[in-house]
Design goal:
Layout (H helix, E strand, L loop, with lengths): L22 H29 L5 H28 L2 E3 L2 E2 L7 H8 L16 H4 L8 H17 L4 H5 L7 H19 L4 H5 L6 H20 L7 H29 L4 H15 L8 H25 L1 H5 L6 H19 L2 H7 L14 H31 L8 H6 L1 H4 L16 H4 L3 E3 L2 E3 L16
Helix pairs in contact: 1-2, 1-9, 2-5, 5-7, 5-16, 7-14, 7-16, 9-10, 9-11, 10-11, 10-12, 11-12, 11-14, 12-14, 14-16
InterPro entries: Ammonium/urea_transptr, Ammonium_transpt, Ammonium_transpt_CS, NH4_transpt_AmtB-like_dom
Organism: Rubus argutus (Southern blackberry)
Keywords: Ammonia transport, Membrane, Transmembrane, Transmembrane helix, Transport
Length: about 450
């Protein structure tokens, strides 16, 4: 469909600013987009590079860097209009380039009363912030999976018109990427046994620096969702920080209660689950509800990672190295359902297309809203399982999904010819008694990073 002509009436005092453009809102969108971009570059680059074993630090960092570039190009060439363009199917938009100045100005000039919750500049950073799995997989997943959820829930698709609430991506981003990552881990297969048994983070302090950038950038992630520097944006930023802080403290408290000591990695996990959980309702819930969501996100994903992971044969079979299923899928699903409970009617009226939207806690049609949240979650889960499986099986026709064992033993040097740190001299062998650190949990010796894999190897009776 051709872009309809629009007229421009420019301000006499600022010729480069159309009369319809709110400079404050525009400045906040650019700021929010920058904050979200910093979550990936350098936030996730530092976090992922530091939290993995030393021999995979370069590969993990480079994949985040590559995804940052690949997603941006795919976004403007085809994916943006698949997510927010004209309808092709009830769950998918028509793909086309979004590069022309007239098209971009027309999108910016959509009246606020009919705007869809998206930003051309901020959106491309979202998928790369949660799913970095492979050279071919990243653009294919963006096009055939992410855009489906984005159009269905945000871009005018069937879930959007049905009134499903996803303020800033608990379903579109986190539930989808967590399920896709878990599905991909199933098809790719496990790491080497030696890596699963001992996978220590190579730099805990840098890991904290990356986590801090992620937390601070989340203010743009959620605060930029309403398109404007308005009440919803302010509430979203406040709730984001409240929920993350609560979740971190709850997760750390559970670590102390059951393992006798606080874990830095555990604190980062709690922070992450809190950020993910609040995302689908950040600007739509009262701050007391954000604290409740933080308590839930600091405890339920903890139980799924530390208890259910050990008891479930499926979770044990799939080598979800960084625990994406627990931190993104479980926390994202939890946040979407809790939004269906706690979405405050007055806040919903400020931004949602359905002026009658409300959480079940507030009575009225809130029960129907909770049901909608459940149905939407099932759609996102099923679509990502199917689409991720098809994509990976298609890739497997051309290249193996798993590296040969001899390369897995070496790591970065085999893949890139580069290493992250020159910590040992030539010919010096790794000595765990000098350079390693083990922790004893109920008398069992194991690496701290096995915590991050959700498999400490202990039985916890709650």
């Amino acid at each position: 469909m051709a872009t309809p002509p629009i007229s421009f009436a420019y301000s006499e005092t600022s010729p480069a600013v159309p009369a319809w453009l709110n400079k404050g809102d525009n400045a906040w969108q650019l700021t929010a987009a920058t904050l979200v971009g910093l979550q990936s570059m350098p936030g996730l680059v530092i976090l992922y590079a530091s939290i993995v074993k030393k021999k995979w630090a370069v590969n993990s960092a480079f994949m985040a860097l590559y995804a940052f570039a690949a997603v941006l190009i795919c976004w403007v060439l085809v994916a943006y209009r698949m997510a927010f363009g004209d309808e092709l199917l009830p769950f998918w938009g028509k793909g086309a380039p979004a590069l022309g100045q007239r098209f971009l100005i027309h999108r910016a000039n959509v009246p606020e009363s009919v705007r869809k919750p998206n930003s051309m500049t901020e959106q491309p950073y979202y998928p790369m912030a949660t799913l970095v799995l492979g050279w071919l997989f990243v653009p294919l997943w963006l096009i055939f999976s992410y855009t489906v959820g984005a159009f269905s829930l945000w871009g005018g698709g069937f879930l959007y018109h049905w009134g499903v609430i996803d303020y800033s991506g608990g379903y579109v981003i986190h539930l989808s990427s967590g399920i896709a990552g878990f599905t991909a881990a199933y098809w790719v297969g496990p790491r080497l046994k030696s890596d699963k048994e001992r996978f220590p983070p190579n730099n805990v302090l840098l890991m904290l620096a990356g986590a801090g950038l992620l937390w601070m950038g989340w203010s743009g992630f959620n605060g930029g969702a309403p398109y404007a520097a308005n009440i919803n944006a302010s509430i979203a930023v406040l709730n984001t920080n409240i929920c993350a802080a609560t979740s971190l403290l709850v997760w750390t408290s559970l670590d102390v209660m059951f393992f006798g000591k606080p874990s830095v990695i555990g604190a980062v996990q709690g922070m992450m689950t809190g950020l993910v959980c609040i995302t689908p309702g950040a600007g739509l819930v009262q701050s007391w509800a954000a604290i409740v969501m933080g308590i839930a996100s600091g405890s339920i994903p903890w139980v799924s990672m530390m208890v259910l992971h050990k008891k479930s044969s499926l979770l044990q079979k799939v080598d979800d190295t960084l625990g994406a299923f627990h931190t993104h899928a479980v926390a994202g699903l939890l946040g979407g359902l809790l939004t269906g409970l706690f979405a405050e009617p007055a806040l919903c009226r400020l931004i949602l297309p359905d002026s009658n939207s409300r959480g079940a806690f507030y009575g009225g049609n809130g029960g129907a809203q909770f049901l909608k949240q459940m149905v939407a979650a099932m759609f996102v889960i099923v679509w990502n399982i199917v689409s991720t499986t098809i994509i990976l099986l298609g890739i497997r026709f051309f290249i193996p999904l798993r590296m040969p064992d001899e390369q897995l033993i070496i790591g970065d040097d085999a893949v890139h010819g580069e290493e992250a740190y020159a910590l040992w001299g030539d010919g010096e062998k790794y000595d765990p008694t000098k350079h390693g650190w083990n922790t004893s949990v109920y008398g069992e010796e194991m690496a701290p990073s096995t915590y991050f894999n959700g498999a400490r190897g202990v039985t916890i009776n709650l």
